[in-house]
Automatic annotation (TrEMBL):
Gene Ontology molecular function, alphabetical: transmembrane transporter binding; zinc ion binding
Residue ranges of every copy of the LIM zinc-binding domain listed in the record: 69-140
Keyword Transmembrane: no
UniProt keyword annotation of Metal-binding present: yes
Pfam families the record matches: LIM
Listed Gene3D superfamilies: Cysteine Rich Protein
Positions in coiled-coil regions: none
SUPFAM superfamilies: Glucocorticoid receptor-like (DNA-binding domain) (SSF57716)
Protein name (Swiss-Prot/TrEMBL): Four and a half LIM domains 1b
GO biological process: muscle organ development
Length: 203
């Protein structure tokens, strides 16, 4: 332990130097045996300190926050992010979704439970779905082709046409007779089919 560490490693109550003394860890810092005996709280006791390296003190690991020293358990309770699904601390990594932390293994598709970390997924009513589950259980089906409307087709954005309470892929919203797109055009429709104005005149 360096001289500066020797000087700073003291009981937080009586300021006694603890380099060669037994000590205990509390949320407020480290405490000598004498002060600990007058404390009613449960504390973790450690052997006399011989070396400090990467915040590891003998067999017990400690973490620092500013000038304070914490055992792993106290540091976790006080500062760690808590997974909203598992209600346990995130010690490494994790996923942020809707400004809340999740363990990577807890962040799964609401339908099939497939892990979503690092993959494409879609949100619906504050729930996350993998691409396949969204297509089969959530996405509207195009009235023309009955395929899911996902907003994207082979990496190309898909426009959607809403007509008479039904939804269509733009590339499916075509005249029944000439097969040309009637999106953003005047149309004539019957209960089953849609026609462009020109083809409607020939019916």
């Amino acid at each position: 332990m360096t001289d500066s560490m020797n000087y700073c490693f003291r009981c937080y109550k009586c300021y006694k130097l603890l380099v060669k003394e037994s000590f205990s860890a509390k949320e407020d810092g480290i405490i000598c045996g004498k002060c600990r005996r007058g404390c009613s709280e449960n504390v973790e006791t450690a052997s006399p300190v011989s070396t400090v390296k990467n915040n590891n003190i003998r067999s017990q690991s400690f973490l620092t926050k500013g000038t304070d020293i914490y055992c792993n358990l106290c540091h976790e309770k006080k500062f760690a992010r808590i997974c909203v699904s598992f209600n346990q601390a995130l010690t490494t990594g994790g996923v942020n979704y809707q400004e809340q932390p999740w363990h990577s293994e807890c962040f799964v598709s609401s339908s099939c439970q497939k892990p979503l970390a690092g993959t494409r997924f879609t949100s619906h009513e504050e729930k996350a779905f993998c691409v396949d589950c969204y297509k089969t259980t959530v996405a509207k089906k195009g009235s023309g082709c009955q395929n899911p409307i996902t907003g994207q087709n082979k990496h190309t954005p898909t426009n959607v046409v809403n007509y008479e309470g039904s939804s269509w892929h733009e590339y499916c919203f075509n005249c029944k007779k000439c097969s040309l797109s009637v999106a953003n055009k005047c149309i004539v429709a019957n209960p089953r089919d849609i026609f462009c104005s020109e083809c409607a005149k020939k019916l």
